[in-house]
C-alpha cells in the first residue's frame, strides 16, 4: 500500500513537535524569549522530520515484506488444498486458521493505514504551525533588534533575557500596586456608603425603637390589668371554695346525725365509718322509705276499722 512521502513527513513532523512543545501560557513569556524558543522549535522540527523519514522507510519496507509473506502463504495454502485432497478435513481446518491470520494481518494493515493518515494530518498541522511561527518571527524581528539596542545603552544588564526579566518584574509590581490602589478605593467607597446608610437610617431606627417601647409599655399595662383580674377571680374562687367546704362539712354532720338517730331508733350500733357519708345517706334513705311505707300502711288500715 503506497503512502505519499510528503503527507507522511508532514504528519510525522506534527506528531514530533506536539510532543516537544511545552504547554505554557503564551502571555507568560516575553516576545524575545518566545522568538528564541520558536527558532529552537524549528530546528527540532527539522531534525524530527529527518528521523521520521528514516522510520517511515523502515515501516514501509517491513510492510512490503509482510505483504509478500502473506501472498506466499496464500499460494502455499491453495497448493496444499489441491495437492492433499485426501486430508480434506485437516487441510480445511489449517486453511481456516491461515485465513483468520490473514484477516488479522489485513486488519493490522488497515490500522497502519489509518495511522499513516493520522500522521499525514499531523504533518499538515505542523506545516501550518511552522508557517504561523515563521510569520510571527518576522513580526517580532524588529522588537529583537530594539531590545539589543536598548541593551547596548544599559551596561548594567548582561543579556536580553535579564533586561526583559527586569522589565517584567517592574510591570508586575506596577500591576500589583494598581490593583491594591483599586481595592483601597473600593473599600473607602464601601465605608462611605455604609456611614451614609447609618446616618440615613438613624432617625428611622430611633423612631422605630420609640414605637416599640410604647407598644411594650401598653402590653405591660394590659398584662398588669389581666393580672389584677385573675387575682380577683382567684380570691373569689377561694372564697367560693371555702363556702362550699363549710357547706359540705355541715351536710356531712347533718347526715351523720341522721344516721345516728336511725341507728338509735333501730337499736343498732353504727356499722359504717364516720367518713362514709354516702353509705350513711343510703341507710337514712332506706329508713325513710321503710317509714313511709309503714305510714302508708297505717293510713289504709285506719279507715277500714270504722266500716266494720
TrEMBL record:
Domain of life of the source: Eukaryota
Keywords: Cell projection, Cilium, Coiled coil
Residue intervals of the DUF4200 domain: 35-152
Key word Coiled coil present: yes
Subcellular localization(s) per the UniProt record: Cell projection, Cilium
Coiled coil: 60-143, 181-233
Pfam family of the protein (one): DUF4200
One GO cellular component, as annotated: cytoskeleton
Protein name as it appears in the record: Cilia and flagella associated protein 73
